[in-house]
């Protein structure tokens, strides 16, 4: 009986610590751009049942984490602004502050190698990079993470890593920006006179079905034969040790 009590106690503690710390997805970061003129969904995790407050500009919102530690709020639509402001989230003694946040138009840059092609690889890259001076154009290049199930977040190695962090279209930071996205954003910024944000999720060689959930593709009759191949490949992958097995084979 005592052993069972210890097990239950440890399980309870592990569950309580699942989202004990205030955190938010890595898409939120210093220097980010939020969409103008639309409601803005902001979410994250904290201790189950805890109260969470968010402040941005003149808006102050309150939420409460559910039994899984998930919380969310929705900012009211705001006009475009190139004035950097702080977005502050607090829960108990914990707080998160995202600095220099702008409001403008945010675009998803998806596709294959044509979109993945970085500015440093384009024609006259040295001239374009040296002359880049648009701090109102910002971009984030997401790391390449393959998964058969949706992910709640992506990991980033460090605040200085070219992947997973918001960057400005200035000489010191712009070289890893998608080339197509950069020229697109520069033209829009010139015409619209509002901050432009780019979320780069491009991955060379991927096909349309790689970006769809299996449940979505199941309804397409022509794709049914591919599911058998996929399941066979996944079984072989798991039998071979999955990612760890692949790393060992690669090292050999």
Describe the structure.
The chain is 28% helix and 29% strand. It has helices at residues 2-16, 113-116, 125-131, 179-192, 214-217, 224-239, 242-251; strands spanning 33-35, 40-45, 51-56, 59-64, 70-75, 81-91, 94-109, 133-141, 166-170, 196-200. The longest helix is centred in the C-terminal third of the chain and has 16 residues, at 224-239. The radius of gyration is 22 Å and the shape is globular.
Give a quick summary of the entry.
The protein has helices spanning 2-16, 113-116, 125-131, 179-192, 214-217, 224-239, 242-251; strands at residues 33-35, 40-45, 51-56, 59-64, 70-75, 81-91, 94-109, 133-141, 166-170, 196-200. It has 252 residues and is an alpha/beta fold.
């Amino acid at each position: 009986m005592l052993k069972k009590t210890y097990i239950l106690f440890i399980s309870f503690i592990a569950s309580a610590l699942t989202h004990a710390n205030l955190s938010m997805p890595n898409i939120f970061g210093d220097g980010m751009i939020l969409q103008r003129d639309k409601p803005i969904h902001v979410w994250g995790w904290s201790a189950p049942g805890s109260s969470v407050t968010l402040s941005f500009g003149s808006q102050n919102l309150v939420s409460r984490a559910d039994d899984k530690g998930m919380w969310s709020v929705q900012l009211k639509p705001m006009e475009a602004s190139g004035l950097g402001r702080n977005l502050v989230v607090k829960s108990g003694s914990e707080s998160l502050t995202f600095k220099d946040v702008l409001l403008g138009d945010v675009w998803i840059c998806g596709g294959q190698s044509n979109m993945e092609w970085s500015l440093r690889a384009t024609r006259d890259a040295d001239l374009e990079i040296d002359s880049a001076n648009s701090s109102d154009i910002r971009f984030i290049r997401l790391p390449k993470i393959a998964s058969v199930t949706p992910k709640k977040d992506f990991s980033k190695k460090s605040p200085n890593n070219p992947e997973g962090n918001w960057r400005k279209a200035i000489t010191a930071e712009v070289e890893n920006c998608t080339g197509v996205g950069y020229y697109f954003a520069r033209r829009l910024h010139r015409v619209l006179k509002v901050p432009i944000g780019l979320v780069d999720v491009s991955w060379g060689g991927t096909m349309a079905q790689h970006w769809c959930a299996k449940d979505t593709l199941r309804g397409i009759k022509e794709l049914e034969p591919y599911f058998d191949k996929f399941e066979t490949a996944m079984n072989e992958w798991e039998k071979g040790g999955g990612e760890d097995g692949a790393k060992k084979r690669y090292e050999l």
